[in-house]
Amino acid sequence: MTSFREFAETCQAIEKISSTIETTNKVADLLKKVDVEELPLATHFIMSEVFPAWSGEQLGIGTSLLYVSLSKASGMAIQSIESLIRTTGDIGDTALLILKEKRKNQVTFSSFLEEQPELSITEVYHRFKTASEASGKGSQEVKVRNLQFLFTSSTPREAKYISRLALEELRIGVGEGVVRDAIAKAFSVPADVVEHALMVTNDLGIVAAAAKKGGVDALKTLGIEINRPIKMMLSQISPDIDADIRAMKEAAIEWKFDGARVQIHKSGNSVTIFSRKLENVTNSLPDLVEIVRKHVKAESAILDGEAVAVDENGRPKAFQEILKRFRRKYDVEEKMLGIPIQLNLFDIMYLNGRTLIDLSLVERRKELESCVESSVEDSKSICVDKQVITGDLEVVEKIYREALRAGHEGVMVKNPNSLYSPGKRGKNWLKKKPLMETLDLVVVGAEWGFGRRANLIGSYSVACYDPETSRFMQIGKVGTGLNDEQLKELTEMLSGLMEGGEAGGVFAIRPKVVLEIAFEEIQKSPNYNSGFALRFPRFIRIRDDKDPEEADTIQRIGRVYSQQMKRL
Ligand code: ATP
């Protein structure tokens, strides 16, 4: 078994370097050292995750639980821990200080220190897993006991990374790209083979273990599996869609539905539905499960589509209606089931044991059509999105107008020869829709409201993402556009994410929640660390189908800013 010390030392070393190549080398060295059985764990740990994102397992350790565990392990009062965090600004540095202090006292007051066995990577994982699985009465105690064990068994440096890992933020800037390259380097396999293995498994832990065990050959045997969701292929907005269509010669045009993206896994009679964020949302969509059972004629399949809420006449209703269902994961209210849902399928990635992502769009579509059966009476509940292949720009315009008239968002323009590229946003899927710029931004701070809204969070500091530094950069504050129900919902969502304490009425919030924000203009501003500010920002909706790292980037803000300057 590999000691957690190796892992903590790698984190420590990476924290001191800024070059991506050096970081990759350090990660590669770690992957080489770790036993193959523990490699999946270490691979996820180094990317700040305890469980693979696709698994849906939630660690669910909040800051207060962590403070209690640290307090019990060290004997320091929770208030003192909180005040230390306000000074250091980081849970990891705080844990390090607290445990160093404890050690010092032990050295002073006891003549010898008990020799402790070293913590292994597996042990850390098991403690986290036991904590995450505890539920019901007495679960807090179980969680605290397991975390406390980790803190009492670790060195101060290990505690630094255990506490950050508990919040799934190592702050060392290692993401999927670095780990993918590190696997290639560590086990001398080509990066494109690693990339393909990642696309089909969606799990770098599995990929790393296969590369270590059997190199390229083992990687090539990896494939898509039912109930292990793959990332969704994404689309791009094109600055000149006509030119792109001309370049493709012919493009596949489909209506773009405004609903919620769903990835459907069917195996026999069992149906599982994953959201855009790959969360298992099966429980909120029992009617969709029935539709799939009834109309998808395949022993096993993975399908891609959009679930749309429709009114009595079959016209699409607001996207909000579907998302509301996702949010109430475990308890779909009757009245929500009353909103009829329509499933529009537009892709297929797996059929009866065969992985289809390396087929062209045209070939995949044939497979899709062959396994979806919709009779006339049911055409309202399921359909394969109509597709027209054309190079004629006037035809494209006509379909686009029709789509808008029918109440949809616009059209998708796809390359008929393109493969399904999980997680990729590129020129093979383009969107054409009326322009209304909004930004998806992450809540990083909050202020309580006043008067009637004194017990609700009334104002939200929002930030864009900088993928180069993995930091969230503030760009403004939003307090308008929200009704009471939305304020209540957001207050509930954010209460568990408060970090540190209050400074000048503002609470720091762990970056987890994404909001879609409309605005009048982007200005340069020294008031926020992004260097930009939004004029008249207004809340549109909660984007809980997006992860914080998928928020708009500072680079995009820069581009929108310059486009705006050109228009003036
Ligand atoms: P992003 O910010 O990633 O672009 P978005 O959720 O705003 O996210 P768009 O990029 O505007 O989405 O459009 C892509 C989305 O459009 C898909 O994720 C899917 O949910 C939806 N969609 C509707 N119809 C189709 C279709 N025929 N083909 C592909 N996607 C479709």
From TrEMBL:
Enzyme Commission no: 6.5.1.1
Q: Which reaction does it catalyse?
A: ATP + (deoxyribonucleotide)n-3'-hydroxyl + 5'-phospho-(deoxyribonucleotide)m = (deoxyribonucleotide)n+m + AMP + diphosphate
InterPro entries assigned to the protein according to its UniProt record, in alphabetical order:
ATP-dep_DNA_ligase, DNA_ligae_ATP-dep_bac/arc, DNA_ligase_ATP-dep, DNA_ligase_ATP-dep_C, DNA_ligase_ATP-dep_cent, DNA_ligase_ATP-dep_CS, DNA_ligase_ATP-dep_N, DNA_ligase_N_sf
- Protein's UniProt keywords contain tRNA-binding: no
Please list which residues make up the signal peptide.
none
* Family in the record: Belongs to the ATP-dependent DNA ligase family.
Keywords from the UniProt entry: ATP-binding, Cell cycle, Cell division, DNA damage, DNA recombination, DNA repair, DNA replication, Ligase, Magnesium, Metal-binding, Nucleotide-binding
Q: Does the keyword ATP-binding apply?
A: yes
Q: What class of enzyme is it?
A: ligase
Q: Which cofactor does it need?
A: Mg(2+)
- Highest taxon of source: Archaea
Q: Which GO terms describe its biological process?
A: cell division; DNA biosynthetic process; DNA recombination; DNA repair; lagging strand elongation
**Residue span, ATP-dependent DNA ligase family profile domain:** 334-466
Q: Which species expresses this protein natively?
A: Methanosarcina lacustris Z-7289
Concerning PROSITE patterns, the annotation shows: DNA_LIGASE_A1, DNA_LIGASE_A3
The terms under GO molecular function for this entry are:
ATP binding; DNA binding; DNA ligase (ATP) activity; metal ion binding
Q: Which residues bind ATP?
A: 254, 261, 276, 306, 346, 425, 431
PANTHER family hit by this protein: DNA LIGASE (PTHR45674:SF7), DNA LIGASE 1/3 FAMILY MEMBER (PTHR45674)
A Pfam family found in this protein is: DNA_ligase_A_N
Task: Explain the purpose of this protein.
Answer: DNA ligase that seals nicks in double-stranded DNA during DNA replication, DNA recombination and DNA repair.
Q: What protein does this entry describe? A: DNA ligase
Active-site residues per Swiss-Prot or TrEMBL entry? 256 (n6-amp-lysine intermediate)
